[in-house]
Amino acid sequence: MKNVTDSFVSLGQWPSAGSFGFNTDILSTNLINLSVVLGVLIFFGKGVLSDLLDNRKQRIWNTIRNSEELCGGAIEQLEKARTRLRKAEMEADQFRVNGYSEIEREKLNLINSTSKTLEQLENYKNETIQFEQQRAINQVRRRVFQQALQGALGTLKSCLNNELHLRTIRANIGMLGSMKEITD
Question: Residue 18 region, left (φ>0) first, then alpha (ψ -120 to 50), else beta?
Fold first, then answer.
């Protein structure tokens, strides 16, 4: 500091010869200029610099608070999402288990209904076979009966007279009527 005051004192020692000159002592002139500039900056810039630093500090604090709030919100949303994920996984497992159970039930139902259908078809087939056998037997009986009747009629026509012939026909018609009632 002594050099600074000495520099100001030395200003008073300059000759006032009216000449203008340069001070070639670089260290003393730079120190004077720097001290004047720093003094002016500190005096006038202290308030501005303080305001700038306070504003910057406030913005940093606001940014930190906003970041913490956003982080808290993000953590909260993450926990909610994890809870929903666990719930969805549990529901998916439940659907999977229920689905497998439902598939097994449907499979058993299908097997049972197919078995019943096959039994019904087998019964229908057996009934159809019995019906067709009975129909074939009845047709054979009718043909045999018709042939026997025609043979008997032929024999009767050749052997009988008209009155005997009519009585035989009536008896045969009566027998046919009773056979028809039996077959129906």
Answer: left
Tokens 């002594």 belong to which residue? 2
**How many whole angstroms separate alpha carbon 23 and alpha carbon 106?**
110
* Residue count (the chain): 184
Are 179 and 145 a contacting pair, CB within 8 Å? yes
Count the alpha carbons within 13 Å of 58 in the hemisphere toward its beta carbon: 6
Whole-angstrom distance, CA of residue 134 vs CA of residue 10 = 153
How many domains are there within the chain? Answer: 1
Whether 25 is covered by a domain: the verdict is no
Rounded Cα distance between 179 and 184, Å, is 9
Runs of H (alpha helix) within the chain: 2-11, 26-159, 162-183
Q: Is residue 74 part of a domain?
A: yes
In a domain, 10, yes or no: no
Q: Would the pTM count as exceeding 0.70? A: no
Q: How far is CA 56 from the centre of its chain?
A: 51
Which pLDDT value is given to residue 4?
46
Backbone angles phi, psi at 83, to 5 degrees: -65, -45
Q: Is the pLDDT of residue 167 over 90?
A: no
Each residue's pLDDT tens digit, 139-162: 998 899 898 888 887 876 676 677
